Every structure is written in C-alpha cells, then in structure tokens.
Amino acid sequence: YGAWLNHLPLAEGAYREHAASWTKAVVAEGTELCVLTALSELEDGIAKLTGKRPEKDIPQNGSRYIAIGTFAGSAAAKETFSREEQAEVAAEGFRIRTSGRSIVIAGASAQGVLYGAFHLLRLISSGASLDELNLLENPVNGIRMINQWDNIDGSIERGYAGNSIFYANDDIVDDLTRVRDYARMLASVGLNAISINNVNAHRYETMFITERFLPKVARVAETFRKYGIKTFLSINFAAPIEVGGLETADPLEASVQEWWKERAAEIYRYIPDFGGFLVKADSENRPGPFTYDRDHADGANMLADALRPFGGVVIWRCFVYNCKQDWRDRKTDRARAAYDHFTPLDGRFKDNVILQVKNGPMDFQVREPLSPLFGAMPNTNMTIEFQITQEYTGQQRHLCYLVPQWKEALEFETYARGEGSTVKRVADGTLFGRSYGGFAAVSNIGDDANWTGHPLAQANLYGYGRLAWNPDLTSEGIAAEWITQTFGSNEQVLETVSGMLMESWSIYESYTAPLGVGWMVTPHYHYGPDVDGYEYSKWGTYHFADLHGIGVDRTVKSGTGYTAQYQGSNAEVYESLERTPDELLLFFHHVPYTHVLKSGKTVIQHIYDTRFEGAERAAGLTAKWNSLEGLIEPSIFEEGKQRFLIQEEHAQHWRDVLNTYFFRKSGLPDALGRTIY
Ligand code: GCW
C-alpha cells in the first residue's frame, strides 16, 4: 500500500548511522501549506528510514539537521544560496546543499521545497552520501498532469485495479484518506495537476460544475493543494443544455458564453486555485462544436474566455476522429484525423488553451509511430498524452514497463525546426517558445490494496512522474530508483526485477500484434486476441489481412496519404517500403506474407518466430519472479506470481490464435515445423 513511499528501514550499519547523524532535526521556516507538508513528510519518512523521529528545533548540542524553506520565507535558504543561485531556481524547482552542520532544502516556492523534501528522502533510500550534497533540480515540463477516467458510480473506464478511490454510489466519497495518500504518491514524483473525472463526462459528472457537487469537489481540491497539485474537471460540452436549461451549446451564442462565465466564477468561489477544464469534444459520440457548425478553436476559446479572469486554462484533447467507417473506403484513415482536424486551426487558439495530443495517431497501441501533430502546430500550446493504464498493453495482468516506450516517443525527431526538434522539446514548449507545455497521462490506479493490480505496474506510475519532471532520465535509472524504494536494496532483487521490467514491452509486443499493425484485440474490452475483431466493425481500425498479405497502405503513392503528414526525412522514410523500420512496416504498408524484412526473414516467418519466442519469454518471466521467493515480501510475491502465471498462459493463447490464423490465411507453413493448431 505504501508503494515507493514505504520508506523501508535502512539496514543496520554504517549507512544507517550516517543518515541518522544528519537527520537529528528538521527545521522548517515559513508557514506555507507545502512547506508544512514537506516538514511532515520528512519527519515521517526519516522516522521510518532511520528508526528515529527528528526533532523540530536546531539541536543545541551541535548535532546536524535539515533546514527547509523558501528563499522568501527562510533565513537558512537565503543565507545558504547566493542571489545568482537563487535566480537559477525555477518556480517549482529546488536546491539542496550540505552546508556546515545542516542540509538546506530551498525553493522559490513552497512546492519546490516539497519536491526537494521528497528528493532527499529518495537519496537516503538509495544510500547516497549526505556529506557533500549540492544540487539544483528544475522540472523540465510546466504541466505534469494525471487524468483520472473515474466515473461517479465508482467504476473506472479502462481501470484494471479495482474501483475508484474518488467516487462511490453516485457521489464523491467523504473519507478522503486514500485520496490524500494518492496525492502523496503523485507529489513525491513531482506531478502537479490532476483531472479527477472521466473525459467522458456522463450525467452526474456534468453537474460537478454546479453547487450540487462543488462543495465536495472543493474538499478534494484542498487535499491535493497540500501536495502542490491543482485540480481540474473534465466537462461536458453540452452542459449548458444538460444542466443549464439552455437550448443550445453553440460556442458563439451569447447566452452560452454567459453561462460558462457564471459557472467559472462559481467554481473559483469554491476553489480559488482551480486549474481549469479538460475537454473531450466531438469524439466517440461526445457532443462538441461540430453540432453547431463551429470548429474546435471556437469551442475551446469560449471556455478559455470564461476561465481567463481567474487564471484557469482549457486543456482540449485532439483525440477527434470519425468512429464510423466503411471497410470499402480505403481513403478515410483514423490515423490522419487529428492532424487533419487541428493543423488548419494553428494560431487561432487563445493563449490559455492547450491541446492534449495522444503520443500516437491511433490509440495507445503496443507500437505506433508518433503523432505527426507534434511539430506541426508551432503557434499552439501542446501537451503529450500517455496512457499509464494498460488498456492495450495487458491490462495490468501482463507486465509491461512503459517507460522505454515513452522515452522512444519523446526522443522522436520531428524535424520541425531542423535537427534536434524532438517531441520532448515540442511537449516542454521550448521548441516553439510556447508559454504552456508538458505531459498528461491516464492513471492506472484504483482501490486495490496495491493500487495498480499488478504490483510491478506501480513502476509505470512512478516512471511517468519522474519522466515528466525530467525526460532525460533513463528507463534503467528510473527502474532502479523504483525498485530500491519499493523492495529495498537487495542486489539480486534489483538485478532481476530491473531485467524483467526492461524486457517486458518487447515481450508483450512479440506475442501480440506484429510489425506495428495493432488492434488484434477483442473489440471493446481490448484484452486477448481476436485477429478479425475490429476487421468486421465500423471503428475503422483495419489491418486488411487476407490470403495474400497484410497491413494498411498509408502511403501517398497508393494509400491514404498519411505519410505526407510527417516532416523532413520522416515522410520519405515512411513512404518507402524499403526504408520503413520493420517494427512499423504494417502500419504504413500492405505487403505479401512473403515480403522480406530488414531482418532477412519473411513477414510470415517473423510472425511465427516472434509468437513462439514471445510465449517462451513470457514463461521466462515467471521463472525469474519465482527465483525471488523469500526476498520479496510474501503477499507481494504471491500477487506477482499469480499475475505471471496468467501472463504465461495468455501469451500461449495469443501465440496459438495468431499462428493458426495466419497459417490458415496464407497457407505458408512454419519453416521450423513447430506446432500450429
Ligand atoms: O482508448 C480509447 C478508449 C476509451 C477512451 C478513449 C479516449 C475515455 O477505448 O475508453 O475513453 O480512448 O481516450 O477518450
């Protein structure tokens, strides 16, 4: 339950003595909310780590201590750091320095101090020497947000770890203990914003912006505020009709604009530091400006005007596409949709509107290219949206450490401003000099005792936060931090779990959809193999497998023309059958099963080989986990063991269903003569 904040007692010995000698007291100067939170986090954390609760005052006997505070509010902070050093600290950054007999944690804001406190606890957990600390940390991204897809009935859309911790019985829960503990987890990795309800805002959630729910929303916001996290709400674009009694939700109608302004004013009466709205509009049957022949800039700008007087922002999702497609129509392409809808609007969004773009053009598949929207809208604020919850990546029954996937996305070169125009620089706002930017991600937690269902899925939540703070951290480094804080400092545990995490994405990919094609899952549930499930549905996510070949032709020459949405050499690479990387081949091209990959194998043989290997490697995970029996807390070990058995079995199922399907379609046998049913 304590996840990476268990603060497991340090082993008896020199390091524990060392840590204890530096932490005899924690002295806080200032009364800002987050400084007080930082103080209590340090007191509790140190007590658990060292076995000794620190005092609150500077020790009179000359012992060493920790001093915390903002430059404005703390003499220690002001004296320890020069003016120049203070100026280098960004709004939410911090400095930590060992100075004489104290360790000083200082920030330009109380939030920075809080992040510094968690950082120091992380250092102690990992056994770092405290004698000569001297570090400066500034978050790379301004917006570091979590999206809950929780519904008021307690269910969670795409939730795989139990029910909501926010809602039950069509109401917001009164006991916010668990929400507070979640806030701690989020703040400890540097996250600073949360939207607390599903982007599909249904009947009751539409009323969150009214007096009926605002008092309770305000309590939730207060809980997050102590941890430096701003609360946002997902809204229903048709709310003026559904709860306001108006006849229209047309964004250019004066009465509609007025209505939203009144709502905003009321929300800010309850929550003075309310973050703003998250909006899913004109997508998957949700209402939006299209109903009134208006575009998305009209819709977003109207809400932005309502929030501006209070400093709020509108986060507008770009997941907009036509979900009703005819298979005979080979020109309509869901992958094109976001770009086609939004690029013509570049420059028209108000400065407090931020577009939230999913990492890939489709929908969080195991493997997708990067959305070409990154780099294509230089005059618009943008955040990147990831999915921590494992909708298409094994639903927290299978292990899939997603940090390597996100790293790959962030390092992708868009060429928008020549070499070095990586997605991470579009997201953080620096490439185009935008005022807002950052990360958003769909959460993977629920009310399961271990938060995430699969005990190792916690690493994804942890890793997401750390990456949002600094996208240059490595996947291995993040994994190691998480493992030592969660399981302690046993070498064998570290090595084994780290190895398992690092190979897990590749394992999952190798028994599910091959070569970037995606979507071979059971429709709606998105778990388990159903090769033709979406092939015979109107959602438009086809792979076009027949007896000759497979893949979606997205070239300009003969396909949907999607490749032209990329810039520089990306467009040429994806247009070319020879140059497209193997792992994305079927995303961009339709090829015969006998097509030879860069690896030298035919497509069909690749499909067979990776399915067999994937199932075997999944079984290998079980064996590795089992080798840790006795080294991991028994109940967690058992939870993991059950999950790995399921994964092993389901990987075999994937293998067999896909192999049989492709054997029957193609008639081409496995070169190694293995069993295909
Ligand atoms: O991935 C799809 C999911 C929907 C989700 C939608 C979205 C919240 O299957 O459940 O709805 O994306 O991102 O809006």
TrEMBL record:
<feature type="active site" description="Proton acceptor">
    <location>
        <position position="391"/>
    </location>
</feature>
<comment type="subunit">
    <text>Homodimer.</text>
</comment>
<protein>
    <recommendedName>
        <fullName>Xylan alpha-1,2-glucuronidase</fullName>
        <ecNumber>3.2.1.131</ecNumber>
    </recommendedName>
</protein>
<keyword id="KW-0326">Glycosidase</keyword>
<keyword id="KW-0858">Xylan degradation</keyword>
<dbReference type="GO" id="GO:0033939">
    <property type="term" value="F:xylan alpha-1,2-glucuronosidase activity"/>
</dbReference>
<feature type="domain" description="Glycosyl hydrolase family 67 C-terminal">
    <location>
        <begin position="452"/>
        <end position="674"/>
    </location>
</feature>
<keyword id="KW-0119">Carbohydrate metabolism</keyword>
<dbReference type="InterPro" id="IPR037054">
    <property type="entry name" value="A-glucoronidase_C_sf"/>
</dbReference>
<feature type="domain" description="Glycosyl hydrolase family 67 catalytic">
    <location>
        <begin position="125"/>
        <end position="451"/>
    </location>
</feature>
<dbReference type="Pfam" id="PF03648">
    <property type="entry name" value="Glyco_hydro_67N"/>
</dbReference>
<dbReference type="InterPro" id="IPR011100">
    <property type="entry name" value="Glyco_hydro_67_cat"/>
</dbReference>
<feature type="active site" description="Proton donor">
    <location>
        <position position="284"/>
    </location>
</feature>
<dbReference type="InterPro" id="IPR029018">
    <property type="entry name" value="Hex-like_dom2"/>
</dbReference>
<feature type="domain" description="Alpha glucuronidase N-terminal">
    <location>
        <begin position="3"/>
        <end position="120"/>
    </location>
</feature>
<dbReference type="GO" id="GO:0046559">
    <property type="term" value="F:alpha-glucuronidase activity"/>
</dbReference>
<dbReference type="InterPro" id="IPR011099">
    <property type="entry name" value="Glyco_hydro_67_C"/>
</dbReference>
<dbReference type="InterPro" id="IPR011395">
    <property type="entry name" value="Glyco_hydro_67_aGlcAse"/>
</dbReference>
<dbReference type="InterPro" id="IPR017853">
    <property type="entry name" value="GH"/>
</dbReference>
<dbReference type="InterPro" id="IPR005154">
    <property type="entry name" value="Glyco_hydro_67_aGlcAse_N"/>
</dbReference>
<keyword id="KW-0624">Polysaccharide degradation</keyword>
<dbReference type="GO" id="GO:2000886">
    <property type="term" value="P:glucuronoxylan catabolic process"/>
</dbReference>
<dbReference type="Pfam" id="PF07488">
    <property type="entry name" value="Glyco_hydro_67M"/>
</dbReference>
<comment type="similarity">
    <text>Belongs to the glycosyl hydrolase 67 family.</text>
</comment>
<keyword id="KW-0378">Hydrolase</keyword>
<dbReference type="GO" id="GO:0005576">
    <property type="term" value="C:extracellular region"/>
</dbReference>
<dbReference type="Pfam" id="PF07477">
    <property type="entry name" value="Glyco_hydro_67C"/>
</dbReference>
<feature type="active site" description="Proton acceptor">
    <location>
        <position position="363"/>
    </location>
</feature>
